[in-house]
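=== Discrete structure encoding ===
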Amino acid sequence: MKAMFSGFAAIIIIGVGAYYGLHMLDFSSQDVYSSPNVRLD
């Protein structure tokens, strides 16, 4: 049970860290996959 909770905590920490880290580096999917022909509102 302890291993399962530590695994869940690791998944949450990695997910939140990846979300904020990629947004700080401007690697959001909106920035990566849009072209000049796409109008973003």
In short: The CA atoms of residues 3 and 25 lie 32 Å apart. The mean pLDDT is 84.
